[in-house]
Tripartite tricarboxylate transporter substrate binding protein (Teichococcus vastitatis), 324 residues
Amino acid sequence: MLPRRPLLALGAAALAIPRIAAAQPAWPDRPVRFVVPFPGGSSPDLTGRLVAQHLAGVLGQPVVVENKAGAGGNIGTDAVAKATDGLTIGLSINGPLSTAPALYPTLSYDPARDLTAVSLLVRGGQVLVVHPSVPATDFAGFVAHAKNNPGKLTFASVGAGSGGHLAMEDIKARTGIALEHVPYRGFPPAVLDLVAGRISAMVVTAAAVLPQLREGQGRALAVTTDARMPQLPDVPTLAEVGLPGAASYGWQVLIVPAGTPGERIQMLAREARAALSTERARQAMDAAAFEIVASSPREAKAYVAAEAARWGALIRTLGLKLES
């Protein structure tokens, strides 16, 4: 909210202002709803609350976080897309914005039509991990072992069409290896079966498996980031092991309903950057193995479109279809 000047300091000239000012009320004039499409305590919830708390301080109105979880983030994202009150903003991730349109034939919203990306807030890489029983100490050895044992190795994911699933399918397509996909409902059971040796491999977000790697319960062969991850400095990138262009990320984007005024979008992007520039935010994102981006609206829109094109093409090649 813009600072108000004391009325007495304006003198007689102030008498001419009220009628004009009343025609353009400040935004927001009521509490703002901030939709996070995942439960409290999740990574998107952490990021969303950092941004929401900052916005409440600069907007002069409460910014109420609403955790609207379900369907891999589609339910909460749909709530933002359908909002017409002018007071709803939200956070979404790569799934609902870039892969859901290709995965779900009857998706209830169209990200490109119904939503506007305000800022790419953060992104995090994944790690290709194998159980120690897999006789491979590096990526080349893993590929060779898989080719010598076609169809005998398995890989876990948190569901068909998830980031880890698609990243592994991309690796399979680029290397010509064959692994059987075993989908799970969430990271904990998938990681548990990986470290128990019931699953051969997994492409998983770094934060979900760092403790197990430190305990020697898994072996990291490659990271999906463009550069090596600070948390795993000795693990090469996919480009370094011979797969240029295979980098992939999980990411989080600040979104608003389509038709939101441009000046409001620019303001929200500026304040999102400010929210994530604090030492508190940096420490929180480092702990979650996320990289702070805080992009412009133009950059966010281009990034989401490029991701949708890339992963949509792979989904169609695989013939994946899910029920919404």
Notes: The two ends are 40 Å apart (CA to CA).
